[in-house]
Amino acid sequence: MIKSEICEMLGIQYPVFQGGMAWIADGKLAAAVSNGGGLGIIAAGNAPGEYVREQVRIARSLTSKPIGVNIMLMSPFADDIAQIVTEEKVEVVTTGAGNPSKYMKDWKEAGIKVIPVVASVALAKLMTRLGASALIAEGGESGGHVGELTTMVLVPQICDATTLPVIAAGGIADGRGFAAALMLGACGVQMGTRFLSAAECTIHPAYKEKILKATDLCTMVTGKRLGHPVRSLRTKFARDYAKAEYGGMPDEELEALGTGALRMAVKEGDNDKGCFLAGQIAAMVKKEQPAAEIIKEVVEEAEPILLGAAKWVN
Ligand code: TUI
């Protein structure tokens, strides 16, 4: 049994979070993860507040366990959603793609546990000062919006910079990654890509198929020029986008090219127009299975690795 301080703090069985993947992590997936003993997190992404409220209520109808909402801070609806999570008494808020300082006081007063994603030591220190409950250190192996540093390099530096519990994310999809994250000083993990294969994850079947068939070099990062680098599968769309990005397409046209591409992948599975967000670990996601089984498998795989670590010390 792997337990850590984050389990006690949040009232969850296993220190495993499901990443708040935009357009993907809905109330159904989050409830399945929470019912499986982890922390299910609904992604707000770029969706309006009422979508988030609806998904929270769907999750509540499916589980009595704690749930989280991830607020993508670049969303035009971030202010609205920041309010809705307090009204809906969501237990945990995670944030991504920015600095949530302006919301921290309200969330804390509402009794919400705030767990920001940090991709730098500076933000980790600021969030610690402003009263975050824990931090998610997400390395650039992850899918979606990525920071500069890798998980291997980021996690120990964040652990050194804070007294808060640290959850490691980015490139973790099995017990080996989980065990390694604990060795780096984290007390839990967040996985996104692994949960794309969950039976309760309602992405288009073509998206799931692409994940299950992925190989080691099958992701790439686009969007650096506009300041929002995003990791996705190396599809025709991603290659076309990269060509446009480095071929001098004006910013507004490039922005328009990316608009709606994530939705096209998730809802239509459209290879030519869709942006299939995925982490570098996609190649290690092998089969569809219930979310609860994923969590159990990852934890059970990590246990003997952690127990066996003593063999290295003579
Ligand atoms: O946020 C994510 N992953 C995402 S968000 C997303 S939706 C999107 N749509 C269009 C453009 C970009 C994204 C898809 N995937 N992960 C968490 C994450 N946060 N990764 C990196 C960061 C991060 C980066 C900078 C967090 C804080 C930060 O701080 C900036 C500052 O102001 O200090």
User: Gyration radius, to the nearest Å?
Assistant: 18 Å
Number of helices: 13
**What is the mean pLDDT?**
97
* Number of E strands: 11
Shape: globular
**Low-pLDDT residue intervals, each spanning 5 or more residues:** none
Helix proportion: 40-55%
Small ligands present: ligand TUI
What is the strand arrangement across the widest sheet? 1-9-8-6-5-4-3-2
Strand content range:
5-15%
Give helix and strand order, one letter per element, not per position: HEHEHEHEHEHEEHEHEHEEHHHH
Structural class: alpha/beta
Distance between the termini: 26 Å
Largest sheet: 8 strands, parallel
Explain how this protein is built.
The structure is a single chain. With 314 residues, the protein is an alpha/beta fold. It is built from 13 helices and eleven strands. Helix 4 links the parallel strand 3 and strand 4 (92-96). Helix 2 runs parallel beside helix 3 and helix 8 (175-183) crosses helix 13. The site of ligand TUI has 20 residues, from strand 5 and strand 7.
